[in-house]
């Protein structure tokens, strides 16, 4: 009898990564994806001659992809052309200040000097601090299996005291730099995990290191090229990808996974990797007798990361003063996060992000036009804000905000994704972009483990498990899930 396959539920980046790792280790793998294409939150939309990425737009940590392709004996460059974004991002402030972040240090320091000369040394000290956070926390919180409080004992005491988890990101930033412009810019990195700089632990300043020291990358052909490349590598390794195939149930007997039920068919599997929100797996996919109501409630109570409101605009003309990545900052950042995380409302005066991939890939828009991906922080779905009713009004608010920067795009094509759409299209609980919240110092310890705690043969990959949300993180999570699974099979990766 043929050996049973491993079932991967969900073809998001975490699921694809897990499948690649497992297939490279010689396992037979089937991915079940409910949508008609893989990628999950990493999606793309083509219409009226435009192409837009609909999810991630900022890619950092390219070494994570190098490691993934290397697992299969391949090179990233065999599948993807990653180019460094220069500038990384162009920041526009309400007082007319414009600042281009760059990994070119002299260029970066010259701009900081013009804003606040004393911040040149502060910025250099901050970069060193963020690099140190990466060195100290990388092994424990990012690249390895999930941390436990005991993991901290592996860190030399001197370093453990420098993890800086007990003050907020913003407090730490303010201790390095004085300029409100730079403080706002550095605080923005909290949003890379859907958190608030005024609540997230200072440890998350590590994100500034990966971007400001490591760079932002763009794959030619669009961000979706990453999902396409991973699906291609998976297929080459023999992974079977069944799209349009939702898993309805994970079959469990005597606390051991036996397979999945999809499209009414029961498929035996020796293990299951779920790339679905962990709370959804417990609430909807596992038989109730295999779970505990208290644990399900605990998962459902966990605060989600923020969501987002997206406008996809086809815009007439070439806006030469815009870069590929642009941020139009609110004048009151604190109020923006209070709206999102305290009031559960989209920001009254939002920071607006605009990514224009046609700056790098002109074929993404018809000649003489641009494809704008416009993103605003939004709260996770709750009864406090009714997107179905209010989306048209909020869309106008976003465009009014851009007008404050003298930007009034002539719109030739327009689509939108509210948090409701993000939840519906990707299965994200409450439309959260990055899984559970990183707003507390304990978030890294509270995330569900990649190995289910009381069901043998069940593993998790994706933004709601370790090491958290964001494309590089979920790629790593697929590797961790695969490693634990293979260990349990008595194999090594
Ligand atoms: C608008 C937006 C902007 C973002 N910006 C960035 C960014 O700039 N940089 C960055 O790094 N990250 C960004 N992110 C976050 C990033 O996209 C996610 O963290 C990451 O892609 C999530 O991957 P995942 O592995 O958790 O799977 P997901 O993308 O959540 O995919 C899960 C998959 O499972 C499938 N599925 C669910 N239930 C079932 C079922 N029962 N049966 C079969 N299939 C099922 C879903 O259809 C989906 O394809 C952004 C996300 C969004 C939405």
What does this structure look like?
The protein has 493 residues and is an alpha/beta fold. Among the domains are: 6-42 and 222-302 and 438-488, FAD/NAD(P)-binding domain (3-Layer(bba) Sandwich), CATH 3.50.50; 104-213, Orthogonal Bundle (Guanine Nucleotide Dissociation Inhibitor, domain 1), CATH 1.10.405. Helix content is 35%, strand content 19%. The protein has 16 helices and 19 strands. The protein has helices at 13-24, 62-71, 105-115, 119-143, 157-160, 169-176, 180-187, 206-213, 224-236, 278-285, 293-301, 333-342, 387-403, 419-426, 443-446, 471-488, and strands at residues 6-9, 29-32, 44-47, 50-53, 82-84, 89-92, 98-101, 217-219, 240-242, 247-253, 256-262, 265-268, 271-274, 307-316, 325-328, 352-356, 369-378, 411-417, 458-460. It has a seven-stranded mixed sheet. Strand 6 (89-92) and strand 7 form a beta hairpin. The radius of gyration is 22 Å and the shape is globular. The two termini are 25 Å apart. Bound molecules: flavin-adenine dinucleotide. The site of flavin-adenine dinucleotide has 37 residues, from helix 1, strand 14, helix 14 and helix 16.
Topology:
Elements: E1 6-9, H1 13-24, E2 29-32, E3 44-47, E4 50-53, H2 62-71, E5 82-84, E6 89-92, E7 98-101, H3 105-115, H4 119-143, H5 157-160, H6 169-176, H7 180-187, H8 206-213, E8 217-219, H9 224-236, E9 240-242, E10 247-253, E11 256-262, E12 265-268, E13 271-274, H10 278-285, H11 293-301, E14 307-316, E15 325-328, H12 333-342, E16 352-356, E17 369-378, H13 387-403, E18 411-417, H14 419-426, H15 443-446, E19 458-460, H16 471-488
Parallel strand pairs: 1-2, 1-13, 2-9, 6-15, 13-19
Antiparallel strand pairs: 3-4, 5-8, 6-7, 10-11, 11-12, 14-17, 14-18, 15-16, 16-17
Helix pairs in contact: 1-9, 1-16, 2-16, 4-8
Bound molecules: flavin-adenine dinucleotide.
Residues 9-15, 32-35, 40-42, 55-58, 246-247, 275-276, 308, 310, 375, 422, 426-428, 433-434, 462-463, 469-471, 474 line the site of flavin-adenine dinucleotide (FAD).
């Amino acid at each position: 009898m043929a050996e049973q396959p491993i079932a991967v539920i969900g073809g998001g980046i975490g699921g694809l990564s897990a499948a690649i790792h497992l297939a490279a280790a010689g396992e037979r793998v089937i991915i079940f994806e409910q949508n008609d294409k893989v990628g999950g939150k990493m999606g793309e939309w083509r219409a009226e001659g435009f192409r837009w990425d609909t999810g991630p737009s900022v890619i950092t940590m390219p070494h994570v992809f190098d490691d993934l392709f290397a697992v299969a004996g391949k090179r990233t460059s065999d599948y993807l052309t990653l180019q460094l974004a220069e500038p990384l991002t162009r920041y526009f402030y309400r007082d007319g200040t414009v600042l281009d972040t760059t990994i070119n240090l002299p260029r970066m320091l010259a701009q900081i000097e013009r804003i606040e000369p004393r911040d040149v040394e502060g910025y250099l000290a901050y970069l060193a601090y963020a690099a140190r956070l990466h060195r100290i926390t990388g092994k424990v919180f990012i690249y390895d299996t999930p941390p436990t409080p005991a993991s901290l004992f592996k860190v030399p005491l001197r370093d453990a005291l420098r993890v800086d988890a007990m003050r907020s990101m913003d407090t730490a930033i303010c201790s390095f730099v004085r300029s409100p412009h730079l403080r706002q810019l550095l605080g923005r990195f909290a949003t890379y995990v859907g958190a608030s700089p005024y609540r997230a632990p200072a440890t998350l300043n590590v994100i500034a290191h990966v971007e400001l020291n490591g760079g932002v990358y763009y794959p030619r052909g669009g961000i979706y090229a990453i999902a396409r490349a991973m699906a291609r590598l998976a297929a080459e390794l023999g992974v079977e990808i069944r799209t349009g195939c939702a898993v309805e149930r994970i079959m469990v007997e005597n606390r051991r996974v036996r397979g999945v039920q999809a499209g009414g068919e029961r498929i035996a599997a020796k293990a299951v990797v779920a790339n679905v929100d962990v709370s959804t797996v417990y609430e909807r996919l596992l038989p109730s007798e295999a779970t505990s109501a208290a644990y399900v409630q605990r998962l459902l109570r966990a605060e989600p990361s923020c969501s987002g409101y997206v406008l996809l605009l086809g815009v007439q003309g070439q806006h030469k003063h815009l870069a590929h990545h642009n941020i139009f900052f609110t004048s009151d950042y604190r109020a923006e996060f209070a709206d999102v995380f305290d009031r559960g409302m989209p920001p009254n005066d939002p920071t607006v992000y605009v990514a224009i991939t046609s700056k790098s890939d002109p074929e993404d828009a018809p000649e003489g036009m641009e494809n704008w991906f416009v993103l605003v922080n939004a709260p996770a779905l709750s009864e406090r804000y009714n997107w179905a009713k209010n989306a048209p009004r909020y869309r106008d608010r976003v465009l009014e905000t851009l007008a404050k920067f003298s930007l009034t795009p002539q719109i030739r094509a327009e689509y939108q994704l509210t948090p409701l759409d993000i939840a519906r299209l990707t299965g994200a609980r409450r439309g959260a972009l990055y899984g559970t919240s990183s707003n507390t110092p304990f978030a890294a310890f509270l995330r569900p483990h990649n190995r289910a705690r009381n069901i043998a043969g069940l593993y998790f990959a994706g933004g709601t498990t370790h090491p958290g949300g964001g494309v590089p993180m979920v790629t790593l999570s697929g590797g961790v899930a695969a490693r634990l699974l293979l260990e349990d099979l008595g194999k090594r990766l």
